[in-house]
Amino acid sequence: MKKSIIYIVIIAIIGIVLFVPGVKDFLKNQFFPIATIENAVHINEEDYDVELKGINAPNTNLKNFKNKAVFLNFWGTWCPPCRKEWPSIQKLYDSRKDHVDFVLVAMNDKEEDVRKFLKENNYTVPVYIAQSPLSEKILPKVFPTTFLLDKTGRILIKEDATKDWDSETVHQFIDNIIK
User: Fold this and answer.
1) What is the pLDDT of residues 35-93, one digit of tens each?
2) Which CDD domains match (predicted)?
3) CATH for the 45-178 domain, from 3.30.450.20, 3.40.30.10, 3.10.20.310, 3.10.150.10
4) Are 105 and 52 in contact (CB under 8 A)?
5) Torsion-angle region of residue 176: left (phi > 0), alpha (psi -120 to 50) or beta?
6) What is the pTM of this model?
7) Dihedral of alpha carbons 111, 148, 179, 96, sign
């Protein structure tokens, strides 16, 4: 009797993995994340060509960050979830700014509102406003949207929600990609 229950449970688990949409991909990403990285989207030369007006940093172009690890975040002062994750981004910046370039792009925002927000909160992470159109590959659909790009322009992380960026796993991930 016990053996038949065990067999039924095993068959049920296999059935769920094979036939319930998303379960197989979820398990694959949990146990085999390398496959996810190998199939990652790459940002190419044209995608990097975005003029950036510096708010608390010099004006630049995103292509100046090509061949570097980049923490690329799209946010707005008008966005409560964006504001919520700022303290963790600042902490990550303070501890990893020598290893990763930070580019935070304020979207649908007035320059004076961005300056006021940064000053009121003593944030020092480099913030820009895009002066030219963004590529579809990096154009955010929701806010905040964050990309972690490796030196080859491969998107290693794309987060379409608020996240605690000052976690040990994020620190370890960044330390691994800069090697």
Assistant:
1) 444 456 889 999 999 999 999 999 999 999 999 999 999 999 999 999 999 999 999 99
2) TlpA_like_family
3) 3.40.30.10
4) yes
5) alpha
6) 0.79
7) positive
